[in-house]
Amino acid sequence: MRKTSINLIILFAVLCIFGCNKKENQSKTQPETMENIQVSDYGVTSKGDSIKKYTLTNKNGMKLEVINFGGIITSLTAPDKNGKYEDVVLGFTKPEDYFNGNPYYFGALIGRYGNRIANAKFTLEGKSYDIDKNDGPNSLHGGKEGFHTKFWNIEPVKDAKFPTLKLTYTSADGEEGYPGKLTTTVFYTLTDDNTLEISYEAETDKPTVVNLTQHSYFNLSGNFTKTITDHELQINADKFLSVNETLIPTGEQKLVKGTPFDFTVSKPIGKDINSNDDQLKKGKGYDHNWILNGSGLRSIAKVYHAESGRVMEVLTDEPGVQFYSGNFLDGKFDTKTGGKNEFRTGFCLETQHFPDSPNQTSFPSTELKPGQKYQSKTIYKFSVKK
Ligand code: GLA
Question: CA 59, CA 160: separation in Å to the nearest integer?
Fold first, then answer.
């Protein structure tokens, strides 16, 4: 009698442990659907990875769509002056265009190093490193197989105040030539005041360099066949970095005053873009790093599209922003609103440390050492002006 009840207790305990473990494993492998985060199938890569799409919705009905390939934002809606929510980020219509190269880096998380490193090499603590050369003589956006091509683990964050995704990716020591195993975490949060918050964290086991950013292209008109030259832009920066023919900073910090690079007072992107200016010729338009005024998390730029009334404000704690006027968009792919992704139909405001910092000692350092934590935050806030 006694023996039977002990056996029953043991059986019950075993079943309970088995049940608990099963639940724990499930939560690791199964994407969880929450009220304001929906998970759906997106596509399958050529390597056989099955890609999921996460749709975050805030209380106003604003939507953010993210896939676990490249941490790519495939869609983000924002209201116009009549309250109509439309997609404001460029993207492909076919999943395979993201999976097989994404030549424009549409919507992607960029790492380990946003923008260019001259001659695809740098020296750190006396050791020299050759990294992937994928842009003429230089390395661009972390190399050919940068973070924009990687499979990210995504978990919706439970008990967060607003819908939040936690994305993680571990980059092996030596990947694309960079030293150190880098553990990277990115949070995407969609708040109820129509704000997309992006927080980046990284840790390494060897000295390395890191410069993470997000490569969404915006077009606030909601029509991706229209150019962005009518968007009015203001950037809180008195200086920008001049570049050479391969878009590497020369080291010179130029005052924007009296040049087409002066966005201290809001003006249409197209106002001076075709001026006879050596720097504009090198970039085929704007493709430069502005040295942001101030420090800490602050408002650094504002974009206004009069016809729709949409406004986007950018806040960051980074020292620079790459304002890129979509000069390499070449009409080879379909847009989500019909037509093709043509020249200057989207712009990027890539918050970052300065390009080529590992080779330019006068720039703020991008080094990360074991025991240190890389942390950075950028906010894109949408509103309307009537
Ligand atoms: C960044 C670069 C540009 C270009 C785009 C991607 O903004 O500065 O020169 O490479 O990415 O096309």
Answer: 14
22 forms beta bridges with none
Mutate to test the pocket of ligand 1, among 72, 105, 343 (most ligand atoms within 8 A of CB): 105
What is the rounded (10 degree) CA torsion for 333, 338, 339, 343?
Answer: -70
CA 111 / ligand 1 centre spacing (Å): 13
Instruction: State the residue range of the domain holding 266.
Output: 37-384
The Å distance, Cα 219 to ligand 1 centre, comes to 16
For residue 18, being part of any structural domain is answered with no
Q: Which residue has the tokens 């009220």?
A: 35
**Is residue 6 in some structural domain?**
no
The CATH number covering residue 337 comes to 2.70.98.10
- Residue 16 inside a domain? The answer is no
Question: Residue-wise pLDDT tens for the chain (386 aa)?
Answer: 455 455 544 444 444 444 433 333 333 344 566 889 999 999 999 989 899 999 999 999 999 999 999 999 999 999 999 999 999 999 999 999 999 989 999 999 999 999 999 999 999 999 999 999 999 999 999 999 999 999 999 999 999 999 999 999 999 999 999 999 999 999 999 999 999 999 999 999 999 999 999 999 999 999 999 999 999 999 999 999 999 999 999 999 999 999 999 999 999 999 999 999 999 999 999 999 999 999 999 999 999 999 999 999 999 999 999 999 999 999 999 999 999 999 999 999 999 999 999 999 999 999 999 999 999 999 999 999 99
**43 DSSP β-pair partners:** 51
Torsion angles phi and psi, residue 70, rounded to 5: 65, 5
Q: Is residue 27 part of a domain?
A: no
Catalytic residue IDs: 215, 350
Does residue 328 have its Cβ closer than 6 Å to ligand 1? yes
Enumerate the H helices of the chain as residue ranges.
2-29, 95-99, 278-283
CA-proximal residue: ligand 1, atom 12 (nearest): 104
Q: Which of 133, 139, 140 to mutate to test the pocket of ligand 1 (most atoms within 8 A of CB)?
A: 140
- Report pTM: 0.92
> How many domains does the structure of the chain reveal?
1
